[in-house]
Amino acid sequence: MSTKLLLCQHAEQLQAACILREMHSTYSDVIDPAIRKVLTTRGEQMGTGLSPQDLFYREVSHVQDLFEALLEYESDIMAGNFTPADIINIIASVNSILEGMLHAAIDYRQSKALSYGTGMELTRTPEFMPWTSTSGTSGVRTLIHKQFMLTLDSAIPEVRDLETREQLFQHMIALADNILDGYNSQIASICNNEDMVEYTMQVEEQYRQERHNLIGPFLEHKQYERAGSLAEKYCDFEMLIRICEETGNQERIQRYQQQFADKGFSDFLFSWYMKEGKQGRLLSLPTPQQTQLNSFLQKDEFGYLKWLHDIECKDFLSAHNTLLNLGRNEEEYLAKKKTLLSLAKLAALAHGDADEQLKTNISDIDDEQELILNQELLPTELLQTMNVDADHMKVLTPLELLQLYICDENTSATEYDFKKALDLLQFLNQDDPAIDYETIRISIWCKAILRDKAIWTHTATGDPIDSIRDTIFFKTIELAVTDGCEPSSLLPDFQSMLTCDTLSPVSTDKQLQFLLGAVYEMANNYT
């Protein structure tokens, strides 16, 4: 602590001692036993011609010792045979003493801030923790918080008359204000110190937690104005929002958005609605707030709300772009991806004025929808074998989908399944080094041959082609040609087929080589 602030602290303690002396006659039944406790703790010899008050006020710089003594005396009373009314009176008296002393000290500090300022010449400000807000077991901050909770738990539930109840809540406001003000002073002194970044973050987190714990009880007891006064002063946005929600005061919300515009209140409000599952409230915000909401919803994490907001604002192009981005990135649920892409296309059509980019987007959606259709057409028996729930399928990549159509588990596969696998080749990313396009293409044809391995390796009589017309391989060729494929470019290289690992169990069979060669010759001569 700087010398100037230390001098200020001594002056504050003198002010607190003066106020304590003024209150002495009113609260002598509490102050006198507390002073005696302090002197006993210090080891002072009483009865030396000086009164306990004389001895106590000699050490004004330790006037805060009285705080712990007051709470100890309070605990003694609560443990004794006293009525609830007596206990409430003692708690109220201690509150008044603490409040009076703290108020005098803080009022002096604030009024003399310029006189005791640290000065611009200091490049690093030492940590300033006011004596009214020291931490630790016997720290003033700790004791004030203890008194706050004692009032809340032991006095408020027992009080019967409205006037005393209001008085106690006002005491609690003063106690909470002292604690939070002390935190603010401490944080302000260290927040710009590069060597104390981590420590500053710890203190700020303690402050936020303390702020929540101190303001929350007022909200629970429906002391909305008192809760609001603290929440406004110390920028507890969550509490301000909860107050407005519980009281149904939307005008107050709008006032806070203006009052705390430079502190990010609107973004906090929107995030709070999202966290609490009240997205509908966002979409029903008044028109003046729509611009702020639109800015907030630009974040990717809020895309599922942004497109609804765009539709509400008739901005169909933005809705289309948002939905398209969501649809492209959806990998968990096929049905969800299908819905998002369909909505993206509808939004594009609603926009109407289709430029080249929009046309490209619609073409991309058509491709995505074709992939989705191919996945939806996977055989039911195959899905059951693979333990896949058809209604909750994840989104498969083109390669995964292709492999499923031709896998051994698809026992009922026909030429249509293999033709779908060939059609899916167009969706593979040939620039991806992990994908060997030609190897995948060859493996499709090899697997088609293996489906009828016995036919291909059996020595047939008569026309060789007639013996393999019923194979899936041959039927797939016919189906592809019927769909417009060029026969000469349909099949991979003959030697590549024979050297493919997939076909290795039968690739050396002379009958297979002969029949396969005949098919290739027929395909090359096909007109």
Concise structural overview:
By secondary structure, the protein is an all-alpha fold. The protein folds into 3 domains: 3-248, no CATH class; 317-376, Methane Monooxygenase Hydroxylase, Chain G, domain 1; 396-524, no CATH class.
Structure description:
The chain has 527 residues and is mostly helical. It has 3 domains: 3-248, no CATH class; 317-376, Up-down Bundle (Methane Monooxygenase Hydroxylase, Chain G, domain 1); 396-524, no CATH class. The protein contains 28 helices and no strands. It has helices spanning 3-23, 28-42, 52-57, 65-79, 84-111, 140-155, 162-190, 197-220, 224-233, 237-247, 250-259, 265-275, 279-283, 290-296, 303-312, 316-329, 334-351, 356-376, 380-385, 398-406, 415-424, 437-450, 453-457, 464-468, 472-482, 487-490, 494-498, 510-524. The longest helix has 29 residues, at 162-190. The radius of gyration is 40 Å and the shape is elongated.
Describe how the helices and strands are arranged.
Layout: H1 3-23, H2 28-42, H3 52-57, H4 65-79, H5 84-111, H6 140-155, H7 162-190, H8 197-220, H9 224-233, H10 237-247, H11 250-259, H12 265-275, H13 279-283, H14 290-296, H15 303-312, H16 316-329, H17 334-351, H18 356-376, H19 380-385, H20 398-406, H21 415-424, H22 437-450, H23 453-457, H24 464-468, H25 472-482, H26 487-490, H27 494-498, H28 510-524
Helix pairs in contact: 1-5, 2-4, 4-5, 5-6, 5-7, 6-7, 7-8, 8-9, 9-10, 10-11, 15-16, 16-17, 17-18, 20-21, 21-22, 21-25
